[in-house]
Amino acid sequence: MSSHFSDAAMKPLEGAQLVGAGLLLAAANFIAVLDTTIANVSVSTISGALGASSSQGTYVITSYAVAEAITVPLTGWLANRFGTVRVFIASMILFGVFSALCGLAGSLGMLIAFRVLQGLAGGPLMPLSQTLLLRIFPKEKAPAAIGLWAMTTLIAPIAGPILGGVLCDQYSWPYIFYINVPVALVCGYIGWRMLKRYESPLLKLPIDKIGLILMIVWVAALQIMLDEGKEKDWFASNEIIILALVAVAGFIAFLIWELTERNPIVDLRVFRHRGYTASVTTICLAFGAFFGATVLTPLWLQGYMGYTATHSGETTAMSGILAVLTAPFVARLSTKVDPRKLVFIGVMWLGAVTLFRSFNTSDMTNFQIGWPLLLQGIGLPLFFVPLTGLALASVDESETASAAGLMSFCRTMSGAIATSLVNTSWENKSIYYHAELAGMVDQFGDVSNALTQAGMSIDQARVNMEQILQSQSIMLSTNHIFMMAAISFALAATAVWFAPKPTRVADTSAAH
Questions:
Q1: Which one has a higher pLDDT value, 136 or 464?
Q2: How far apart are CA 426 and CA 161, in angstroms?
Q3: DSSP state, residue 262
Q4: Whole-angstrom Cα distance, residue 54 to residue 311?
């Protein structure tokens, strides 16, 4: 294998082949990231088609995110054991197959099961696409290659809601999954032919089986508890109590095992670095707030503001326009300015915009909803780009890969947990506000009298008032979530100052 690798290294790709390989790897990263957001605006449509509630429909988002988070820490071991190229191509083809099965699912349970498998396959695509880009491109062209990769990472979440909305409205929801199939299969076939010369030597490293099992147990128990809690009336249900106990016991056992294992699946020892701990705390609080608000926005727009999936997707995606434009500038700036300052400014900007959004009203125009989302995009690169560098500059160089994988795991889990918490809190708060407003509406019968005098029957008047009451309850609940997200951003901005000023600029190529 090592001689094969040496021969391959003497015959690098050139010209059009090199560009083609770069585009192929970028496409792999694109579809993996795309699927984290493509279902966001389609939750209502999918739920209706499969006979489930909107809250159950959010499992379509969280199941993929959690499964993806679980395989990210495994990527290094898989690449060493089976070869980087083999794992990448297998992941790509399996991603296509499971995408097709998602589209063919006839029930929510089947769809969630296939989304889990899709997430497991998609997890290695992001880190390995970046690894292979750096392997095939000459050093002088590596920054351009990473720039291409980074652009797909930023563009894919923007394209997701738009593409999901258009496919749902113009065709039907399965097409949001079918769209991956030709890309994955064609890239898998061409990728093997172009990249097999770059296969890495195999290393038979031991895998931390106990650690992997414990991680799956506590993560799965926690996510199921969060997803099912509202339906089961939380701790009034024995099932939720059992899941909570399993999650806590599993997490404690996982911590003890990973801190004492020689070859841990997740190297928790990197948390001994204060800068890394502060950075991960910041990214969890800020990304959780951002992702939770991003999931909530299309649910609110489609469910209560009369938006179609396409219109909702276009509005939600506005946050990415300025993010793409400002990312190259921020990347250059982050090597010259204290990254803590940039992160603080970026996160506070996101918090300020989200705070402004907590004063929304139910009669807002599309422009009034859209322009804060557009401005929000300025803060995203200021948050993501320098924070990655700050985190990885805080650990020893030998720990960079494991630190990057753990940070990705924490970020993905924070997004999945936030989705569940936002969904539960949104519905619970709307019920609370409905009860509060109901006692204050039309206490003296003036409104019902006015409506009946306008030609409505008493039943029609009551229905009309109930619709207004429900709309205002949802609006107040939505604003409450945005307020909580703004507070989370403020806490995140504070947390970054617990990191000491970095003494070196980290190689962020291991980050994903």
A1: 136
A2: 21
A3: S
A4: 19
In 10 A of CB 127, how many CB atoms?
A: 26
Q: What is the pLDDT of residues 293-350, one digit of tens each?
A: 988 888 888 888 888 878 888 888 888 788 878 877 887 787 788 889 999 999 999 9
What torsion, rounded to 10 degrees, do the Cα atoms 192, 198, 202, 208 define? Answer: -70
Locus of tokens 């738009």: 162
Cα distance between residue 227 and residue 115, in whole Å? 15
Q: Name the 3-class secondary structure at 510.
A: helix
Phi then psi for residue 441, to 5 deg, are: -80, 130
Helix/strand/coil percentages in the chain, nearest 5 = 80, 0, 20
Q: What is the pTM of this model?
A: 0.80
CB 275 within 8 A of CB 343: no
DSSP designation for 141: G
- Three-class DSSP labels, 206-253: CCCHHHHHHHHHHHHHHHHHHHHCCCCCHHHCHHHHHHHHHHHHHHHH
- Long-range CB pairs of 502-506 (<8 Å, 24+ gap) are 502/275, 502/339, 502/389, 502/390, 502/393, 502/394, 503/393, 504/393, 505/335, 505/389, 505/393, 506/389, 506/390, 506/391, 506/392, 506/393, 506/400
């619709």: which residue's tokens?
A: 467
pLDDT(127) > 90: no
Closest by CA position to 228, among listed 238, 218, 220, 240? 240
| Spatial contact of 162 and 317, defined as CB atoms under 8 Å apart | yes
Determine the Cα–Cα distance for residues 162 and 177; give it in Å rounded to an integer: 14
Q: Is 488:284 a contact under the CB 8 Å cutoff?
A: no
Structure-token pair, residue 22:
């770069």
The letter for the amino acid at 392 is: L
Tokens of 184: 């994955």
Helices (H), 336-399: 339-357, 366-376, 379-393
